[in-house]
Amino acid sequence: MNDRIEKAKAVYTRLNAAYGIPDWRPHFEPVDELILTILSANTNDRNSLRAFETLKARFGGDWDAIRTADLAEIKEVIRVAGMYHQKAPRIVESLEKLYREVGAYSLEHLAEMPVEEALDYLQSFPGVGHKTASIVLLFCFRKPTFPVDTHVQRQSQRLGISRAKAAPLEVKRDWESLLPDADFYSLHLNLIRHGREVCDARGPRCAGCVLRSLCEHAQSYTAG
Ligand code: SF4
Asked: Quick one: how many helices (H) and strands (E) in the chain?
């Protein structure tokens, strides 16, 4: 039996035991999820959600009104999410693209699209990389793609699931090759929670970590 597969399964199982198996449910409409994820870059969930809710409230939830609004007003409304000079035009350009290519503010056509094609399509939106594309596809359509953010990347490297310097796309491919599609949603959410609560970037709390016996970082630390 492949040791990496065994380790990946053990990580999945232990995190489920620690945090539970989250039920899959669509959090938002796909376009909402796309815009929210654009807002979430380099900030915390609280600030990005606040910016998203303020944006929707200011324009009555009307994407057409947001697409045609003054850019300065959008920047002001989403300011709390940070990087608003980049995020505001990305939001408007994304809505422009939907308006132009789909004729509606909808991503429902992705439901029938093969996952790799849908990933490519979403990554053709301004500023959308494979993390954002995977979040939209996994969270809204339950498509088999594994989103890798900074928490997931860090822990995958420390555990030895991925190489120490593996880029996010390599980490994504590692997990996707090691675990069944049905595990991606739970693993993604639980790794993020574990990264926030235990496997901190600067000060991982290895002593009480449920993954410690699986972790290369902790073992090298102990050996040292
Ligand atoms: S043992 Fe330490 S480094 Fe390894 S996953 Fe747990 S907290 Fe992170």
From this structure: 12, 0
Nearest CA to ligand 1 atom 4: 215
Kindly give the distance from the C-alpha atom of residue 194 to the centroid of ligand 1, in angstroms, as a whole number: 9
Radius of gyration of the chain (CA): 19
pLDDT at 204 (0 to 100): 96
Report the atom number in ligand 1 closest to the C-alpha of 204.
Answer: 7
Look at residue 25 in the predicted model and tell me its pLDDT: 77
Cβ atoms within 10 A of the Cβ of 85, count? Answer: 10
pLDDT along the chain (224 residues), means of 10: 90 98 86 93 91 97 97 97 96 97 96 97 93 94 96 98 97 98 97 97 95 94 60
List all residues whose CB is within 6 A of at least one atom of ligand 1.
Answer: 155, 158-159, 198-199, 204-206, 209, 211-212, 215, 217-218
Domains and CATH numbers, the chain: 3-23+147-223 (1.10.1670.10), 30-141 (1.10.340.30)
Q: How far apart are CA 122 and CA 158, in angstroms?
A: 30
pLDDT of residue 223: 57
Amino acid 222: pLDDT: 62
Biggest CA pair distance of the chain: 60
Q: What's the rounded Cα separation, in Å, for the pair 221 and 144?
A: 35
